[in-house]
């Protein structure tokens, strides 16, 4: 089970810190991705971090504004979202795939949602202009 937190409503240019946590498992053993879905649009990959050597990937639309990281002490994968724009408004989901799965064993991560098998319920991010 994955649980996201940290969403909210901010003005353009603002920041939020989204967290993805799980209970019972160690997230360090999982490749974790952050995805988002805006109303009327398809879900898109935003960022991911691999389980093995911490490879990170960002979508072009968020590069230099978002930062993904692991907090092993808190057992979370966080997404720092800065310089928010109205077009960042969406429900943000985290997803995970374990090292026992092919896509979780790779040294890199992907932004394809089919590569992940466990999903959270999402957290809403709303950015006003």
Characterize the structure shown.
This protein is mainly beta. Helices cover 3% and strands 47% of the residues. It has one helix and eleven strands, in the order E-E-E-E-E-E-E-E-E-H-E-E. It has one helix at residues 102-105, and strands at 2-5, 8-11, 16-22, 30-37, 44-49, 56-58, 66-71, 76-81, 90-98, 118-119, 123-128. The strands form two sheets. Strands 2, 4, 5, 6, 9, 10 and 11 form a seven-stranded mixed beta sheet that branches. The chain starts with a strand and ends with a strand.
Rounded radius of gyration (Å): 14 Å
Strand content: over 45%
Uncertain segments are none
- Let me know the average pLDDT: 94
Short note summarizing the structure:
This protein has 129 residues and is mainly β. The chain has one helix at residues 102-105, and strands at residues 2-5, 8-11, 16-22, 30-37, 44-49, 56-58, 66-71, 76-81, 90-98, 118-119, 123-128.
Secondary structure elements and their pairing?
Blueprint: E1 2-5, E2 8-11, E3 16-22, E4 30-37, E5 44-49, E6 56-58, E7 66-71, E8 76-81, E9 90-98, H1 102-105, E10 118-119, E11 123-128
Parallel strand pairs: 2-11
Antiparallel strand pairs: 1-3, 3-8, 4-5, 4-9, 5-6, 7-8, 9-10, 9-11
